[in-house]
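Changelog note: in this version the structure field was regenerated for every chain. One regenerated record is shown below for reference.
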Amino acid sequence: MRGVSRYIKKFGRIGFALGPSEDRGFAIWAGYDIHGVSGDLTDLDLINVDGWSETELAARGVKSFVQVSPTDAEMYAKLGIERK
């Protein structure tokens, strides 16, 4: 069984700023520690950040990672990851 790989995903236009820029949305980055998956998942908009420094993650505002268990079929489906 594969170990855990760390990924981030950008979610755009999730909210709206107040004031004169209210027509512009903002984006956030979410972090995931995904068990049993490794490699390139950029086609799912997931960027592998194994080996990235805290500074690189902080530049995107990522401070924590959600643990995605191998038994969490719902989360795998939400992320678009097919289980084998």
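Spot check on this record: The radius of gyration is 15 Å. The chain is about 15% helix and 35% strand.
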